């Protein structure tokens, strides 16, 4: 959990040093947001075209390539153009800096001024972000994401739904949203229940556990595993013969058939505990197991937002039977409920504690699982005003 926190904090520091924020601290936040929406950072995403291959580089290395509205608003129309007008043979997306593919989304901008302003900002950001995720999930051009470094939250959304996802020894995957009072969004309700091991997705979602390197491919989040030092050569081959993407990735990937998943010794405990019908019963089963892994997991769960955990458990259960489109629409309703503080303001409190004040002592409300009622959870799933997300690509 500490490593995840440090990544989120690094992302915040990068945003905190932006020129817009330094020069406009005396202005109202609305003016700051408008300037950002007008694409202040011209080079936060770089686009290249070679041999009918589109190459995207997320270019905020000091912020670990964290995804903001400016980037999303550049990515979406370019991908549409490459698909429908230029008709590219292949699209490759990567992160600049050598440390991170994309470490998450810009949650600080949404939350820093509370629900009164955060609701509108959040609805706008998540609408654009989830529309981008949906486009990638239904993209007609072969799409290769190079997950060479941190791949978390929003970074997962712009990669995991694409056809090809390449992990390396530098890959660190996590969905850390329950740490900040949110839920595994960006289609997490779609891909997490479909991982290779029973209940692994819910375990990852509730604990924010980090998977690294070969584990990311072994459980199905990545489709291929290739050493980081080989990526420049792989990219060159893909550009040279883009229509051979399948053969190039397959012939250069390491076989993981004999690789032992790092959680394999605890996978039965995960399957038993996290298949329980309620979060309280998950806790109870871990307490009954009472071994080192279970006790460590319990310690982690006690740090998470109680209402976030209950929302997440229901979200993934429903998502197992939904399409990606339906999952993203459900995620949008949940995201709107979070930014509107419909049942709880834990999203604002979690971001404050981990990323703004950095005291790492969130005051969750409700503070316990027992105090989170079914009504509080259920109303977050209901369709409210301005919460209907439709896709038009």
From TrEMBL:
GO terms for biological process: L-valine catabolic process. Residues 53-381 form the Enoyl-CoA hydratase/isomerase domain. It catalyses: 3-hydroxy-2-methylpropanoyl-CoA + H2O = 3-hydroxy-2-methylpropanoate + CoA + H(+). InterPro entries: ClpP/crotonase-like_dom_sf, ECH_dom, HIBYL-CoA-H. GO terms for molecular function: 3-hydroxyisobutyryl-CoA hydrolase activity. It comes from the Eukaryota. Residues 1-12 have a biased composition (Polar residues). The keyword Mitochondrion applies. Its main location: mitochondrion. CDD domains: crotonase-like (cd06558). Signal peptide: none annotated. Keywords: Branched-chain amino acid catabolism, Hydrolase, Mitochondrion. Pathway: Amino-acid degradation; L-valine degradation. One of its GO terms (cellular component) is mitochondrion. Residues 1-24 are annotated as: Disordered. It is found in: Mitochondrion. Its EC number is 3.1.2.4. Belongs to the enoyl-CoA hydratase/isomerase family. NCBIfam families: PRK05617.1 (NF004127). Hydrolyzes 3-hydroxyisobutyryl-CoA (HIBYL-CoA), a saline catabolite. Has high activity toward isobutyryl-CoA. Could be an isobutyryl-CoA dehydrogenase that functions in valine catabolism. Also hydrolyzes 3-hydroxypropanoyl-CoA. This is 3-hydroxyisobutyryl-CoA hydrolase, mitochondrial. It comes from Cacopsylla melanoneura.
